[in-house]
Structure formats: structure tokens, C-alpha cells
Amino acid sequence: MTILNILNYPDPRLHNIAAPVKKVTEEHKKLIKDMAETMYSAPGIGLAATQVNQHIQIIVIDISENKDSLLVLINPKIIDKRGEQFCEEGCLSVPGVYEKVQRSECIKIQALDNCGNLLKLEADGLLSVCIQHEMDHLLGKVFVEYLSPLKKSRIKSKMIKLSKRKDTT
Ligand code: K2U
Ligand code: ZN
Predict the structure, then answer these.
(1) Which of 89, 98, 103, 136 to mutate to test the pocket of ligand 1 (most atoms within 8 A of CB)?
(2) Residue of 89, 122, 134, 145 marked catalytic
(3) What distance in Å separates the CA atoms of residue 7 and residue 140, rounded to the nearest whole number?
(4) Is 134 a catalytic residue?
């Protein structure tokens, strides 16, 4: 069981752009397992490899009640999107901050699964929000960047204070 360290905003590594996975290896499968354990223990319903300082295009998601339906998306691409939704979001890299963000309501994506097979998926509601949120992480984007400059600045100051307090305890 390996719980990985999750980078906290405004760590500059959260703005790295993730590279595509050329071939799914055993090393990637080990990272996926560790990411899933880290996500479940947080607890959260999604986690991008960027957040654990691995800058490759891998996402894990589980929005199921029983936490027994892990979705692994490698090299995800949005191939269609429709509508809009304005939902409250949180982020394991920005603990304690919940703000509304506008996203596409329905998306169609293609990705590789953890065996390297092509998958296509249509999502709406919470799954759609989560996938878009995680795909932003792979592009080096954190959800607070959609907020007003004032809100973003206040969140950044709050997170810097939090990290300084952690360092002194
Ligand atoms: O990227 C992350 O930090 C994972 C998020 C995924 C997420 C973001 C926005 C909306 C839904 C999911 C974490 O799971 S944040 C914790 C959380 C848990 C349940 C519902 C919303 C947020
Ligand atoms: Zn996040």
C-alpha cells in the first residue's frame, strides 16, 4: 500500500504539462494502483498523475457509492462536448476550497485503459465534471484559475499560510 504525496497549490509543479504515455508498462500499472490508493484514502473521487508529481497523462476516477468502480484514463481526449453546467468543485491540491466552475454538461472522450486498449466514454453530471477537472490537471491547470483574480489571490495566500504552518509543526 503506497500513499503518495499530493502537491498543494500554488506548487509550480502543478502547472507542468503532462506527456502522453507511449506504451502502458508495469511501472505505469504500479503508479495507477498507488494513485487509486491515494485517492481513496484522501478521500477523493478523482486524481491526476500531475498531482502526485508524475507528469504523464494518467487519471484515476471513482464516483461510485461503494468505491469499487475505478476508471483509469490514459491519454484522454475530449472528442465531443455539449451544453454547460455550473457546479461546485473541490480539489485535493487545494484543501478546504469549494467554488463553482462552468464546464460542459456532456462530453464524449477517448482514452486508453490500464491495459492500453482504446476506450470511448460518454459522461454527464458529476462524472463529466470530474473528468474535465482531471484533464485540466494534465494541462497544468488548477480549478481556482477559473475564479476572479481577487478570489484566486486570497486562495493562494491562504494556501501559502497553510504550508508555512505545516512546516513549523
Ligand atoms: O483533482 C482532484 O483534486 C480530485 C477532485 C475531483 C473532483 C473535482 C471537482 C468535482 C468533483 C470531483 C477531488 O475528488 S475533490 C473532493 C470532492 C469529492 C467529492 C465531490 C467533489 C469533490
Ligand atoms: Zn483537482
Answers:
(1) 89
(2) 134
(3) 12
(4) yes
Q: Are strands 106-112 and 99-103 parallel, antiparallel or unpaired?
A: unpaired
Ligand 1 — pocket residues by CB below 6 A? 44-48, 89-93, 129-130, 133-134, 137
| Domains of the chain, each with CATH number or no CATH | 12-168 (3.90.45.10)
| Per-residue pLDDT in tens (0 to 9) along the chain, 169 residues | 799 999 999 999 999 999 999 999 999 999 999 999 999 999 999 999 999 999 999 999 999 999 999 999 999 999 999 999 999 999 999 999 999 999 999 999 999 999 999 999 999 999 999 999 999 999 999 999 999 999 999 999 999 999 888 887 7
Instruction: Determine the Cα–Cα distance for residues 135 and 138; give it in Å rounded to an integer.
Output: 5
Cell numbers linked to 95: 484543501
Place of cell 473541490: 90
CA of 124 to the centre of ligand 2 (A): 18
Which residues are in the CB-under-5-Å shell of ion ligand 2? Answer: 91
